[in-house]
Specification:
14 strands, 5 helices, alpha+beta
């Protein structure tokens, strides 16, 4: 017979176009998102807690910080001697800014600043732990137009005092080079530059130029020559700890 319409199946057996199903696609997206959240923020952190619990010497090492999940974090590479007032004054004079606390508002702002290349000089830093507590103070020095690249340091007061009654502050200073996914948990995080010696020396130079260094020495062989932080980023250095006595 003639005059009948030709269907898509009759033309070489071509497959019909996929129909757009918004509800189905939305549910699929939610399942994928929920799976990523569960793995990155629940399953993998719990796995790391169990793994590090088997290595008490590593988890409790005084030369490394840890994340909230107990994963080894950034290495300690500076030690400052001075009062809290001296430390804060020195960092401000050297051009470093106190970091904002991590809240929903600051998290949204840092994400917006990174995407739209807007400066955020007080962008928050994630918490790391030493002596069983998060950092007491955190400072950063921005690079470029957004917080994806920045110098940053966290400090913990040790509770020990010198002959003049001044406390010691352990510090972990590193350089954030980009934003991405953690290699250990899949969470969104900053990735650090592996050269921790350059950051140690950069911070000390800033303090010198601000005339805030009373004396300077190096404790050789303090740190391991290499390792990985909580995000799985490699770091390396000469193992030296920069010991700075702050001046007024």
């Amino acid at each position: 017979m003639t005059g009948l319409p030709t269907t898509p199946q009759s033309q070489g057996g071509s497959r019909p176009l996929r129909r757009f199903r918004p509800l189905h696609d939305l549910l699929l997206l939610l399942v994928i998102l929920g799976g990523w959240l569960a793995v990155s923020y629940v399953a993998l952190p719990d796995w790391w807690r169990v793994r590090e619990a088997r290595h008490p010497a590593l988890a409790g090492a005084t030369r490394l910080t840890t994340t909230a999940s107990g994963i080894p974090g950034d290495p300690l590479n500076v030690l400052f001697i001075g009062s809290e007032k001296q430390l804060v004054a020195a960092m401000l004079a050297a051009g470093w800014h106190p970091a904002d606390p991590v809240t929903l508002r600051t998290s949204v702002r840092i994400a917006e600043s990174s995407v739209f290349h807007r400066p955020y000089e007080e962008a928050p830093v994630s918490d790391l732990f030493l002596f069983g507590r998060r950092e007491d103070l955190a400072f950063e020095k921005p690079v470029g137009r957004d917080p994806r690249e920045r110098h940053h340091v966290r400090f913990w007061q040790s509770g020990r005092i010198d002959a003049s009654g001044r406390p010691a502050w352990w510090g972990a200073v590193t350089f954030d080079r980009s934003v991405g996914f953690s290699h250990t948990t899949g969470q969104i995080t900053h990735h650090i530059d592996p050269d921790i010696d350059s950051e140690r020396d950069h911070l000390i130079l800033d303090l010198k130029q601000a005339a805030k260094v009373g004396s300077l020495s190096t404790e050789a062989g303090f740190q391991q020559p290499e390792g990985r932080n909580g995000g799985g980023d490699p770091w390396r250095g000469d193992g030296g700890l920069g010991v700075v006595e702050l001046s007024d």
